[in-house]
Amino acid sequence: MRNGITGLESCQCRRAKSQKNHIACAMLVWNHLKKMANILGNTIARLKHQLLSKYLVSQLKYPAIKMTVV
């Protein structure tokens, strides 16, 4: 499992239980991305980039949180 894909290296959890939960979630993400990448014939990194790009575009067009100028 590559850490840069799942964000495992940026974990700031201090307690052992929190660290275990974070690692377990990262493994679940990795497994899901791997499965989807295989189905789509893509790499995991490219799949993640595409998902994040689509999300960013959608948030720029239709923000979930409205910004106000004070």
Please mark out the parts with pLDDT under 50 across 5 or more consecutive residues, or reply none: none
Number of strands: 0
The radius of gyration over CA amounts to 16 Å
Encode the helix/strand succession as letters.
HHH
Contiguous helical run count: 3
Terminal CA distance reads 45 Å
Q: How is the main sheet built?
A: none
Helix fraction, binned, reads: 55-70%
Name the overall outline: flat
Structural class: mainly alpha
How big a fraction of the residues is strand?
under 5%
What value does the average pLDDT take?
A: 87
Molecular structure report:
The protein is flat, with a radius of gyration of 16 Å. It starts with a helix and ends in a 9-residue tail after the last helix. With 70 residues, the protein is mainly α. It has three helices and no strands.
What descriptive keywords fit this protein?
mainly alpha; 67% helix; flat
Blueprint (SSEs and pairs):
Layout: H1 3-6, H2 16-40, H3 44-61
Can you give me a brief rundown of this structure?
By secondary structure, the chain is mainly α. The chain has helices at 3-6, 16-40, 44-61.
